[in-house]
Amino acid sequence: MKIVEHHLVQLAAVIETGGVTEAAAMLGMTQSAVSRTISVLEKRIGEPLFVSGRRPMQPTPLGEQLGLQGRSILASSRKAAEIVRSFKSGSAGRVRIGGVPFFMDAIVSLMIASFQRDEPGIMIDQSYGNYSDLVGALDSGQIDLAITPTGSVDMRVDHLFEPILPARNVLACGAGHPLVRKRNLATEDMVNYPWVAPLPGSPLVLDLHNILLTLGLEEVSVRYAGGSLLSVVNYLAGTDALTILPLSVAYSFRREDKISIIPLDIPQPERVLGILTRKKPYSNPASRKFIGHLRRESAELRRVTEKYDRSISWAPGPFMAEHRKPSE
């Protein structure tokens, strides 16, 4: 015997409301349609589903058991409708985001936390990668958006790129490093200390090469490489090593008394950090809502880091002043 699921839903509604008229109103149906369903169901089963003459309507033991199944179906239907509503409103769902490691750990993780305080129903799935890895993940549908630095030559017609922060690098070291207090920095100062190498594949690798080229140096002594952001910060705090970091990343550690910025003007890259998406993504309102949050948080981050940048007395040292961007 086959029992139609929506017949059980109507049965559950009658039991829940105590009457056919009330059940019809709850389900958005006519009273006659619900009454006909109960009659058809009783004939198909060959047993009464309600005790005759009782008001409000009282189910028989069999009617009560079948009503429980209908209630489960009704609850699932309501849950499905709520899922659709939440998805369309962007208050539930999943956002898959990839990004460059240091910026994700220092900056974006905090933005995710503040976003989820207001949107606890949205799951954030984070991954790491450099530009080529992120483009591949985006094209294959593994992520919804990427946070990555890029230059204009890298742009593709099937992608959208929204700049959120200009690239700005600084020389970083442990708090209390001798170079932080030295007034007149010379080229020799850069080679007298060991260095932490940027992560392989990171744009910071090219930036470091450009700095060495400007200094007229072929290489520096690299003593540590391949570490995560936390391990690099801890290493700098415990040694006299130097490294190159994005200003925004160094700024995020300003209150922890672990690292300092060497106030030396260095060549700056011709790229910006931004949000990379496909031009025709799958519909994901949660992702759009999260991107809006990133815009607002990034605008504030840009404001405070530029103010922080202006508060530092940058020494030209061995670098040419024209290497700095006019806006800085």
UniProtKB/TrEMBL annotation:
Alphabetical list of SUPFAM superfamilies matching this protein: Periplasmic binding protein-like II, Winged helix' DNA-binding domain
Keywords attached to this entry: DNA-binding, Transcription, Transcription regulation
Transmembrane segments: none
Cellular component terms per the entry's GO annotation: cytosol
Protein name: LysR family transcriptional regulator
Family: Belongs to the LysR transcriptional regulatory family.
Pfam families, per database record: HTH_1, LysR_substrate
Domain HTH lysR-type: residue ranges: 1-60
GO molecular function terms noted in the UniProt entry: DNA binding; DNA-binding transcription factor activity
Family annotation (InterPro entries): HTH-type_LysR_regulators, LysR_HTH_N, LysR_subst-bd, WH-like_DNA-bd_sf, WH_DNA-bd_sf
